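worker-3 :: picked Flp family type IVb pilin
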Amino acid sequence: MRQVYSFFLEDRGATAVEYGLLVGLIALAIVGTASAMFNSLHNPFGRVSEPFTR
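worker-3 :: tokens ->
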């Protein structure tokens, strides 16, 4: 029982989890931004390249 109690009092793993969550949120923001930029840039470049594909 003492080992279980000391396991929950340890905070070394909490730092790793916090860094993991932070990296995950940053990655999600990068993917969301890249997706939005791709969608907004795809239409103008698609119209410019359209005459060359005919």
